[in-house]
Amino acid sequence: MNQEALILFNLAEALGIGLLIGAEREQRMSPDVKSLAGIRTFAITALLGAVAQQAGGVILLATVIISVMLLVGLAYWRDKSEHIGLTTEVALVMTVLLGGLSVTHPVVAAGTGVVVAVLLASRAYLRGFVRSVMTEQELRDGLLLAAATLVVLPILPNRTFGPYGVLNPYLMWSVVIMVMVIAAAGYVAVRLCGAQHGLALTGFASGFVSSTATIRDMARRTRSAPAQMRGAVAGACLSSLSTAVTMSMVLAAASVATLNAMALPLLAGGLAAVLYAAPWTITALRAPPACAENPPPDQGATPVVQPRAISLTGALAFSAALAGIMLASTAVQQEFGLNAMIAAAALAGIVNTQSAAISVALMVGAGQIAPQEAVLPILAAISTNTGARVVLAVTLGRGGFAGRVVPGLILGLAAAWAAFLLPVPAALP
């Protein structure tokens, strides 16, 4: 493509960007409302930016942008008696910039132009979502996650320090962010599932936040609403699958070598959870209205407790627990050997199996132990955590809840241990 053809192509792209954004603004116009610019103004403005960039470079483009901004200010001054908004004016200045960008970076300019047009056209959807769907607490939680990822993480040192040289702030906070993202995804899934899909899918989504808390809430629900037994059992069983998925994700973030060593136990435990939960889930989803997950108010049912999407105190507590468990596990391992570290991980797993597993995986990443040596401590933590869930199901559930849920928990744990203990057959020649 020769130089003149390339210039014409860039000008045509700038014209297309201006027409696209201008068409959206023109359609938005109301006969009763005065608007600063329509489709022709946007098209000409985009061409103006492209010509300025092509003819005089950045200096001329900056002059054109300032001139457009002055014209916008003059239009505001002339129409100061009524509020005409800022969206069109900002879009007009953006169109000048995109016109200039189409000369130097045409692909970026085209993509950005489409994004701008989509944002302008999505006004009703965005406003409705923010004002009617998203709560103020959810907005704060989203900002918290963004700050943790984009503000805190980049300033943390990516090196080990402290006793035994196992604390890496950057890696530890990365794992905390992963846990926060998983919790947020589970929260969103719970919001999307809602009552129409029942307790089964809600339990699966809540399991990404905490399988222990999910089983506790499902067990309590069987006391307040016995008719929801099938849905509660399905949700509790599916939360075990969520635990296997969550464990795989956090181990991948902490140490890929540890994930590889734990691959067979996690796969076996997850598969056992799927096979056991499948009939209960199908039964719950096919339940008649009398056994649906949303009974009339007179049945006295209490809704499943839905945690916050992101909790600052929870994230800080998880980070502190992770650091403490890492230090304790490393100290125990170096002073008393691997067997003592297994006992420490098992004890920590009663409270939080994720932090126990992550601490062991980070020790692998720091070179303190080999990947294969991490399997036993992690399985020990999973075992004690499973025991805690069994106790909750037995003590809080009623009407056969424990008899339906506990076998699935034991089956998943047994499958994980079997995958670790049984020898893997050698490949046939």
**General form:** elongated
The largest pleated sheet is described as: none
Assembly classification = single chain
State the end-to-end distance. Answer: 57 Å
In angstroms, what is the radius of gyration? Answer: 29 Å
Going by helix content, strand content and strand pairing, the class is: mainly alpha
> Uncertain spans, ≥5 residues at pLDDT below 50?
289-305
Average pLDDT reading: 80
* Domain unit count: 2
Number of strands: 0
Q: What is the overall number of helices?
A: 16
**Helix share bin:** over 70%
> Secondary-structure element order, as H and E?
HHHHHHHHHHHHHHHH
Which band does the percent of strand residues land in? under 5%
Keywords: Membrane, Transmembrane, Transmembrane helix
Pfam families: DUF4010, MgtC
Protein name: MgtC/SapB family protein
Domain MgtC/SapB/SrpB/YhiD N-terminal: 12-120
Write a structural description.
It holds the Pfam family MgtC. Keywords: Membrane, Transmembrane, Transmembrane helix. Residues 177-397 form the DUF4010 domain. The chain crosses the membrane at residues 6-23, 35-52, 58-77, 84-101, 107-126, 138-158, 170-190, 197-215, 227-252, 259-278, 309-328, 340-362, 374-396, 408-428. InterPro entries: DUF4010, MgtC_SapB_SrpB_YhiD_N. The two termini are 57 Å apart. The protein has two domains: 3-129, no CATH class; 135-421, no CATH class. 77% of the residues lie in helices and 0% in strands. Residues 289-305 have low confidence and may be disordered. The protein is elongated and about 75 Å long. With 429 residues, the protein is mostly helical. The longest helix is centred in the first third of the chain and has 40 residues, at 39-78. Helix 1 runs parallel beside helix 4 (106-121). The chain has helices at 3-28, 39-78, 87-104, 106-121, 123-133, 136-155, 169-193, 198-207, 211-224, 229-254, 256-285, 312-336, 338-351, 353-365, 375-396, 401-421. The chain contains 16 helices and no strands.
